[in-house]
Amino acid sequence: MAKDPPEPKRDGKGAHISGSRKPAREVQEPFTIRPPETDHGSMPNLKWSFADSHVRIEKSGWTRETTIRELPIAEDVSGVNMRLEAGGV
Q1: C-alpha angle with apex 23: 44 to 40, nearest 5 degrees?
Q2: Is the pLDDT of residue 37 over 80?
Q3: Closest to 68 measured CA to CA, from 53, 58, 78
């Protein structure tokens, strides 16, 4: 059963989003749309989806990398999602 995406509304405050949306992502990360009342905007988003990373296509496969470029908090770590064909380099 699919969940409905969150709305930026709480306790009579806020309003419906009338512009473009990505409902599947909003369901995965509801706090980006409707943060808890205790949020003061000082906590950085520490999550990043490889789906948002640039894909580099090469002869024998592809790679997408997430570094400090996409996620400024990641000063000492990066991640790579890749697919290589058998025998690819």
Answers
A1: 25
A2: yes
A3: 78
Q: How far apart are CA 27 and CA 31, in angstroms?
A: 9
Torsion angle defined by CA atoms of residues 25, 30, 35 and 36, in that order, rounded to the nearest 10 degrees: -160
| Residue 84 burial (CB count, 10 A) | 12
The 3 state secondary structure assigned to 49-71 is: CHHHCCEEEECCEEEEEECCCCC
Output the pLDDT for position 2.
Answer: 63
Contact 29, 55 (CB under 8 A): no
Q: How far apart are CA 14 and CA 25, in angstroms?
A: 20
pLDDT at 5 over 70: yes
